[in-house]
Amino acid sequence: MIYTVTFNPAIDYIVRMPEFVPGATNRVNYEQVLGGGKGINVSIVLKNLGIDSTALGFISGFTGKEITRQLHSFGCKSDFIELPDGFSRINVKIKTNEQETEVNGQGPDIPENAIEELFAKLDKLTAGDTLVLAGSIPKTLPDDIYEKIMARLENRNINIVVDATKNLLLNVLKYRPFLIKPNNHELAEMFDVTLTCNDDIITYAKKLQDMGAKNVLVSMGKDGAILVAEDGSITYSPVPKGKLVNSIGAGDSMVAGFLTGYIETNSYEKAFYMGVATGSASAFSENLATRSEVEALLKTLNN
Length: 303
Ligand SMILES: Nc1ncnc2c1ncn2[C@@H]1O[C@H](COP(=O)(O)OP(=O)(O)OP(=O)(O)O)[C@@H](O)[C@H]1O
Ligand SMILES: O=P(O)(O)OC[C@@]1(O)O[C@H](CO)[C@@H](O)[C@@H]1O
Description:
Elements: E1 2-6, E2 10-16, E3 30-36, H1 38-49, E4 53-59, H2 61-73, E5 77-78, E6 81-82, E7 89-95, E8 100-104, H3 112-122, E9 130-134, H4 145-152, E10 159-163, H5 166-170, E11 179-180, H6 184-191, H7 198-210, E12 215-219, E13 225-228, E14 234-237, H8 250-265, H9 268-283, H10 291-298
Parallel strand pairs: 1-4, 1-9, 2-7, 4-5, 4-6, 9-10, 10-11, 11-12
Antiparallel strand pairs: 2-3, 7-8, 12-13, 13-14
Bound molecules: adenosine-5'-triphosphate and 1-O-phosphono-beta-D-fructofuranose (F1X).
The site of adenosine-5'-triphosphate has 20 residues, from helix 8 and helix 9.
């Protein structure tokens, strides 16, 4: 079974307008309310691709109820811990013809006893399970929380995927995550360098591998992706042709696509192409990728 963990789920309030003027009253010409957060998006795309998972994490208030309702409407299972106070955050994504602006909420406090409840759920995972730890954590939590989870699950034959930034990611490498998926900007930030070409990206992806990650998947938005795999292979793919509609959740979709491809073929290369196709299928659609959209794009990639 696959489990995803989202510490800080969100309602994504996505609005479009021709121009966004700070300090003025802006009126939208399109709006969408989507239950999200990285792990939750991974669970939804896995389900769209035909793979079951259980979404874990913390929800709260009226927004938490709506996130859970939407997740279940896709047929996904959840086992969230409901926090007594506050509400799951609302993340505002403002899209104009020129740019995307994000205003992400902070999310509710997670008390110590709720963390213990999550640990108790994770203790029940069994050998062969996959755990996806994805997204930021509320700022009241220490940034070693993913590390603590991995330490607890060490030597239990559980494949762990981490999609997070900076210390949250760097701290877990020693526990040998199965897959990490930084984007090229996050990779540059982690090493405080400028990455100018694919060779630079491969160099720093390999450093993350030397630090413990088994497979490093670096996404590069419209410029495609690179996989540095544990079998020593290095694969680059451009993105399939298509029109960008909404890139929110493209990275999460890529993770779901990679896992699905790996489960179905046991090949890192095929998993990688499935990841790229799934990321792009989400980027080319108002909603998250569906299986038929992914398969259509996969046929156009060089694999
Ligand atoms: N403009 C685009 N055109 C085509 N494919 C895209 C585009 N943006 C993203 N993708 C696809 O999705 C993958 C992941 O995108 P990206 O690198 O933006 O991830 P990310 O930064 O983690 O995204 P997010 O945090 O928004 O989920 C890319 O490798 C690519 O396959
Ligand atoms: O603040 P985080 O946890 O880093 O990112 C949260 C978020 O931007 O990630 C998802 C897209 O990847 C959205 O559904 C959500 O709003």
